[in-house]
Design brief:
Helices cover 48% and strands 20% of the residues. It is α+β, with helices and mostly antiparallel strands.
Amino acid sequence: MSTTQDVYDDHEKGWPFEEVLKAGREGARAQQRRLQEYVAQNDPALAAALAMEAARFEIVSRTVIEPAMLACASAATQRGWHVCVVRDDDLDRLALFATPGIRFYCSRQPSRTVAGGVIWPPCFVSFYGSARSLAVETHVELSQLDGDAVPTYQPLLSYPDVTSGTVRAVLAAFFNDLKRIG
Protein backbone atom coordinates (compact mmCIF):
# COMPACT_ATOMS: atom_id res chain seq x y z
CA MET A 1 0.00 0.00 0.00
CA SER A 2 1.43 3.35 -0.94
CA THR A 3 0.66 6.68 0.61
CA THR A 4 0.58 10.10 -0.91
CA GLN A 5 3.90 10.77 0.81
CA ASP A 6 5.42 7.74 -0.96
CA VAL A 7 4.14 8.83 -4.35
CA TYR A 8 4.96 12.51 -4.01
CA ASP A 9 8.17 13.35 -2.26
CA ASP A 10 7.77 16.92 -3.45
CA HIS A 11 4.52 18.29 -2.01
CA GLU A 12 4.13 20.75 -4.86
CA LYS A 13 3.91 17.87 -7.33
CA GLY A 14 1.27 16.20 -5.17
CA TRP A 15 -1.00 19.20 -4.77
CA PRO A 16 -2.19 21.72 -7.35
CA PHE A 17 -0.44 24.48 -5.38
CA GLU A 18 -1.24 27.35 -7.72
CA GLU A 19 -4.90 26.40 -8.04
CA VAL A 20 -5.36 26.02 -4.29
CA LEU A 21 -3.62 29.33 -3.63
CA LYS A 22 -5.67 31.11 -6.28
CA ALA A 23 -8.95 29.66 -4.95
CA GLY A 24 -8.06 30.73 -1.41
CA ARG A 25 -7.24 34.28 -2.45
CA GLU A 26 -10.35 34.59 -4.60
CA GLY A 27 -12.52 33.22 -1.79
CA ALA A 28 -11.09 35.66 0.75
CA ARG A 29 -11.53 38.58 -1.63
CA ALA A 30 -15.13 37.58 -2.40
CA GLN A 31 -15.85 37.29 1.33
CA GLN A 32 -14.41 40.76 1.95
CA ARG A 33 -16.47 42.20 -0.91
CA ARG A 34 -19.67 40.65 0.53
CA LEU A 35 -18.84 42.01 3.99
CA GLN A 36 -18.27 45.51 2.62
CA GLU A 37 -21.55 45.39 0.69
CA TYR A 38 -23.43 44.13 3.75
CA VAL A 39 -21.97 46.81 6.03
CA ALA A 40 -22.68 49.56 3.48
CA GLN A 41 -26.33 48.48 3.22
CA ASN A 42 -27.03 47.59 6.85
CA ASP A 43 -24.78 49.74 9.02
CA PRO A 44 -23.91 53.08 7.42
CA ALA A 45 -22.29 54.30 10.66
CA LEU A 46 -19.87 51.36 10.64
CA ALA A 47 -19.19 51.89 6.93
CA ALA A 48 -18.36 55.54 7.66
CA ALA A 49 -16.11 54.54 10.57
CA LEU A 50 -14.25 52.07 8.34
CA ALA A 51 -13.80 54.73 5.64
CA MET A 52 -12.57 57.27 8.19
CA GLU A 53 -10.13 54.78 9.68
CA ALA A 54 -8.86 53.83 6.20
CA ALA A 55 -8.18 57.50 5.39
CA ARG A 56 -6.45 58.03 8.73
CA PHE A 57 -4.29 54.91 8.31
CA GLU A 58 -3.44 55.84 4.72
CA ILE A 59 -1.81 59.05 5.92
CA VAL A 60 0.30 57.43 8.65
CA SER A 61 1.23 54.49 6.43
CA ARG A 62 2.42 56.75 3.59
CA THR A 63 4.27 59.26 5.77
CA VAL A 64 5.71 57.07 8.55
CA ILE A 65 5.32 53.30 8.17
CA GLU A 66 6.22 52.83 4.50
CA PRO A 67 9.38 55.01 4.59
CA ALA A 68 10.60 53.17 7.72
CA MET A 69 9.87 49.79 6.12
CA LEU A 70 11.68 50.75 2.92
CA ALA A 71 14.74 51.90 4.89
CA CYS A 72 14.78 48.60 6.80
CA ALA A 73 14.25 46.68 3.54
CA SER A 74 17.28 48.37 2.00
CA ALA A 75 19.48 47.50 4.98
CA ALA A 76 18.15 43.92 5.11
CA THR A 77 18.76 43.38 1.40
CA GLN A 78 22.39 44.39 1.89
CA ARG A 79 22.65 41.67 4.57
CA GLY A 80 21.35 38.97 2.20
CA TRP A 81 17.63 38.95 3.00
CA HIS A 82 14.95 38.92 0.31
CA VAL A 83 12.47 41.62 1.22
CA CYS A 84 9.35 43.15 -0.25
CA VAL A 85 7.04 45.86 1.05
CA VAL A 86 3.47 45.35 -0.18
CA ARG A 87 0.34 47.44 0.27
CA ASP A 88 -2.95 45.60 0.64
CA ASP A 89 -5.72 46.64 -1.69
CA ASP A 90 -9.30 47.26 -0.62
CA LEU A 91 -10.21 43.54 -0.70
CA ASP A 92 -7.08 42.21 1.01
CA ARG A 93 -7.29 42.70 4.76
CA LEU A 94 -5.96 40.72 7.71
CA ALA A 95 -8.92 41.24 10.02
CA LEU A 96 -12.57 42.19 10.01
CA PHE A 97 -13.15 45.90 10.46
CA ALA A 98 -9.53 46.60 9.56
CA THR A 99 -8.15 48.89 6.91
CA PRO A 100 -6.02 47.61 4.08
CA GLY A 101 -2.57 47.30 5.59
CA ILE A 102 1.05 47.41 4.58
CA ARG A 103 3.20 44.29 4.86
CA PHE A 104 6.93 43.71 5.18
CA TYR A 105 7.75 40.25 3.75
CA CYS A 106 11.15 38.78 4.46
CA SER A 107 12.94 35.51 3.77
CA ARG A 108 16.39 34.08 3.28
CA GLN A 109 15.09 32.44 0.09
CA PRO A 110 13.94 34.34 -3.00
CA SER A 111 10.22 34.49 -3.65
CA ARG A 112 8.57 32.05 -6.03
CA THR A 113 7.09 33.15 -9.29
CA VAL A 114 3.94 31.43 -10.52
CA ALA A 115 1.43 32.13 -13.25
CA GLY A 116 -0.54 34.53 -11.05
CA GLY A 117 2.49 36.56 -9.92
CA VAL A 118 4.98 36.44 -7.10
CA ILE A 119 4.38 34.32 -4.01
CA TRP A 120 6.14 35.50 -0.89
CA PRO A 121 6.68 33.09 1.96
CA PRO A 122 4.39 33.60 4.95
CA CYS A 123 6.84 35.47 7.15
CA PHE A 124 5.79 39.06 7.45
CA VAL A 125 4.95 42.02 9.63
CA SER A 126 1.82 43.93 8.81
CA PHE A 127 0.51 47.22 10.12
CA TYR A 128 -3.15 48.15 9.67
CA GLY A 129 -5.76 50.43 11.18
CA SER A 130 -8.59 49.02 13.28
CA ALA A 131 -12.03 50.63 13.22
CA ARG A 132 -12.83 48.87 16.50
CA SER A 133 -9.87 50.11 18.51
CA LEU A 134 -9.21 53.31 16.50
CA ALA A 135 -5.53 52.43 16.67
CA VAL A 136 -2.81 50.84 14.56
CA GLU A 137 -2.45 47.09 14.98
CA THR A 138 0.57 44.97 14.12
CA HIS A 139 0.42 41.35 12.96
CA VAL A 140 3.60 39.23 12.92
CA GLU A 141 3.58 35.91 11.06
CA LEU A 142 6.48 33.42 11.34
CA SER A 143 4.81 30.18 10.22
CA GLN A 144 7.27 29.59 7.36
CA LEU A 145 10.07 28.93 9.80
CA ASP A 146 8.18 27.41 12.68
CA GLY A 147 5.10 25.33 11.93
CA ASP A 148 3.99 25.76 15.54
CA ALA A 149 4.34 29.53 15.43
CA VAL A 150 1.15 31.38 16.22
CA PRO A 151 0.64 34.83 14.70
CA THR A 152 1.48 37.48 17.25
CA TYR A 153 0.14 40.95 17.70
CA GLN A 154 2.04 43.85 19.16
CA PRO A 155 0.35 46.21 21.62
CA LEU A 156 -2.01 48.64 19.92
CA LEU A 157 -0.38 51.88 18.88
CA SER A 158 -2.32 55.10 19.06
CA TYR A 159 -1.72 57.15 15.94
CA PRO A 160 0.61 59.70 17.61
CA ASP A 161 2.75 56.77 18.85
CA VAL A 162 3.38 55.48 15.32
CA THR A 163 6.85 56.79 14.57
CA SER A 164 9.66 55.54 12.39
CA GLY A 165 11.34 54.45 15.65
CA THR A 166 8.39 52.26 16.69
CA VAL A 167 8.18 50.73 13.19
CA ARG A 168 11.92 50.00 13.21
CA ALA A 169 11.63 48.47 16.70
CA VAL A 170 8.87 46.09 15.54
CA LEU A 171 10.91 45.14 12.48
CA ALA A 172 14.07 44.63 14.58
CA ALA A 173 12.14 42.25 16.87
CA PHE A 174 10.85 40.45 13.76
CA PHE A 175 14.41 39.99 12.43
CA ASN A 176 15.53 38.70 15.83
CA ASP A 177 12.74 36.12 15.72
CA LEU A 178 13.67 35.13 12.16
CA LYS A 179 17.29 34.61 13.18
CA ARG A 180 16.35 32.71 16.35
CA ILE A 181 13.92 30.36 14.61
CA GLY A 182 15.72 30.04 11.29
